[in-house]
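To close the section, here is one more complete example, presented without commentary so you can practise reading it yourself. The ligand is glycinamide ribonucleotide.
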Amino acid sequence: MASRLPVAVLLSGRGSNFEALAAAAPTGGYEIRGVVSDRPAAAGLERARERGVAAHALPPGHYPDRAAHDAALAARIDALEPGLVVLAGYMRILSPPFVARYAGRLLNIHPSLLPKYPGLHTHRRVLEAGDPEHGATVHFVTDQLDGGPPIAQARVPVLAGDTVETLSARVQGAEHRLYPAVVGWFAAGRLAWRDGCAWLDGRVLQAPVQLEDTDESGGADRAS
Ligand code: GAR
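Output:
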C-alpha cells in the first residue's frame, strides 16, 4: 500500500473537524499522527485520545511570550514529522516564523465565505448583515489573518429564523465534508502551494473550488 501522508492537527475547542478528518483518513490517503492544543481542557484532545491519536496540550501561560510558545509548538509538531499541518479551530494567531516554517503545508478552515468575514463572530455578522448564504473556506495559511490563498468553499443557505446556533451547526456540517476533501487532495499530491498561489491538478486556482461542484473524491468541475 502507498504510504499515507502524516498530518498534525492543531485545535483549541470541540474537535468536530478533527473527528471528521480522522473518520475520513482511512480512505483519504493520510493519517493523523497527533493533535496539539493551546487549551488543556479542549474536548478535541479527549476525542483524539479516544481514537488512539497522540494528544498534547501546550498552554501559552507556561511560556514567556508568543515566540517561545510558538517555538515549543513547532518542536512538538516537528516530532510528529508531518507532511501537512492542519488548523482545525485553532484560535490563536500564529507568529510569522511559525507560519514561514510550515509555508505551503499549513491549512486552515474558516467559518465564512472568504474574503467575506475574516476574524471572529462570523455567524453573528452574517445574520446581522442579512446575507442569504454563508459557508466555510479552506485556505493556505499566510501572515495575513484568514487571507491566504483560498482552496475550496462549501456554501449553506441562511434560513428564516436562524440563530447563531442553528447557522453555525449548518456551517459545521459543511465543514465536515469540506476539510477531509481538501486534505485528501493534498495527500494525493493534487494540491500544492507555489509562487504564493494554490494549485490544483497543475493549474493555479483563480477561485476556490465550490464543493457542490465536485464529486467529493476531488473530481472538480470548477471555475478556472
Ligand atoms: C470551526 O467551525 C472552524 O471553522 C472555526 O472553529 C470551529 C472549530 O470547531 N475556526 C475558526 O474560527 C478559525 N478562525 P471544532 O473544534 O468543532 O472543529
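Once you have examined the C-alpha cells, check your reading against these statements. The pocket of glycinamide ribonucleotide is lined by residues 11, 13-17, 44, 88-89, 109-111, 136, 172, 175 (CB under 6 Å). The helical segments are 16-28, 43-50, 66-79, 96-101, 122-129, 164-187.
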